[in-house]
Amino acid sequence: MKTVAKIVGGLVLLLVVVAACGYGYLLFAFPKVPAPPNVKFDMSPERIARGKYLNDHVVGCTTCHTQRDWGKFSGPVKEEVLGAGSESFNLGPAGKLYSKNITPAAIGSWTDGELLRAVTQGVSKDGTPLFPLMPYPHYGAMDEEDVHAVLAYIRTLKAIEGTAPDRQLNFPLNLIVRTIPRPNTFTKRPSPDDKVAYGKYMTTAALCGDCHTPSANGAPMPGMEFAGSVAGADNWEFVETGYRVRAANITPDANTGIGSWTEQQFIDKFKGFESATNTPLADHERAQNTVMPITAYAGMTREDLSAIYAYLRSLKPVTNRVEKFPDAK
Q1: At residue 214, what are phi and psi to the nearest 5 degrees?
Q2: At what angle do helices 263-271 and 302-313 cross, to 10 degrees?
Q3: Quick check: 251 and 257 in contact, CB under 8 A?
Q4: For 33, which of 90, 98, 121, 302 could close a Cys bridge (C-beta 3.0–4.6 Å)?
């Protein structure tokens, strides 16, 4: 019996040593990204204007990094705390996230290179790996000049003091997140003359696929790109509004997607909210509220919306009928 106990004890000790070594390796070997680059953003009025357009109507940095008013249509940001963070994101059993303060009060001491690395490679100033709900893989594949423009604009936000709550990532995600950041892969923005390629670039920058593509175990479901919510998927329903909301099918399927939409109908769908009244919703209206910041996307140019439409129409049609507002009566 003593021999058996020694063997068992030895195996347990070995497992502890292996686990400790693995944990140490994750801590010291990851995240695997380069040091912050030595860059300086162009703070010209033209560059800041481009960055404001992209931020306000395409990439939406302040949409996530500002608390939103879910009592109003499309959850507009609370302008008085623009960029101050603390918007919560529930990951279910995996944990909970809070957007960070990105005003100069919080990131004023960051170098431009540190800010660029965080946004495009997923590593904070202090080396903390960011959870990819912050879509750095997408931003890291954009045109570097566009990213510089957005960050130049972010530098101009009003400084607002405040610190967001710490994130809560449960095991094993708290370790897995260290392995996700990777070097950026900047690409050049296609010419608008290549409408489908330019539309793909803008669709990716606007993160359309992140909400409209179902995922399983953290990865997009093959063959379901842009097909909307699917029962059993990780992101089947959104509940930020207080009611269940499901992402629509935006593939060119004629019966369940946007295959029957004309380009004008697609553009008008957005532009119809460009002058939204921003008034509180009645109780019966809140069940049909949307988490999609369509009132922000409404400010996109007609040319950009047209290109996005062209790209979406080039996708494979997927038949997937979605009941978008299951709690509406």
Answers
A1: -70, 150
A2: 130
A3: yes
A4: 121
Q: How many residues does the chain have?
A: 329
What is the reported pLDDT for 91?
86
Q: How far apart are CA 212 and CA 229, in angstroms?
A: 7
Handedness of CA 120, 122, 124, 126 (dihedral sign): negative
Residue 4 confidence class, pLDDT cut points 50, 70, 90: low
What's the rounded mean pLDDT across residues 167-192? 95
Q: Which residue has the tokens 């400790």?
A: 20
**Mean pLDDT of all residues in 85-107:** 94
Sign (positive or negative) of CA dihedral 187, 217, 308, 62: negative
Euclidean distance between CA atoms 236 and 314, whole angstroms: 25
pLDDT in tens, 257-287: 999 999 999 999 999 999 888 899 998 899 9
Whole-structure pTM value: 0.92
62-98: string of b/e by CB count within 10 Å (b at 16+)? Answer: bbbbbbbbbebbbbbbeeebbbbbbbeeebeebbebb
125 class by beta-carbon count within 10 Å (0-12 exposed, 13-18 middle, 19+ buried): middle
* Helices and strands (H, E) in the chain, number of each type: 14, 5
Write out the E strands in 125-239.
168-169, 215-216, 219-220
- CB-side exposure of 264: number of CA atoms within 13 Å? 0
| Alpha helices, H only, 272-326 | 283-286, 294-297, 302-313
pLDDT of 236 above 70: yes
- For the record, the structure tokens of 322 come out as 């979605």
Q: How many CB atoms lie within 10 A of CB 233?
A: 19
Among 48, 3, 80, CA closest to 145: 48
Predicted confidence at residue 92, as pLDDT, reads: 84
- The beta strands (E) that lie in 55-210 are given as 88-90, 95-98, 168-169
Characterise 87 by phi-psi region: left (phi > 0), alpha (psi -120 to 50), beta (else).
beta
Angle at 291 between CA 148 and CA 91, to 5 degrees: 85
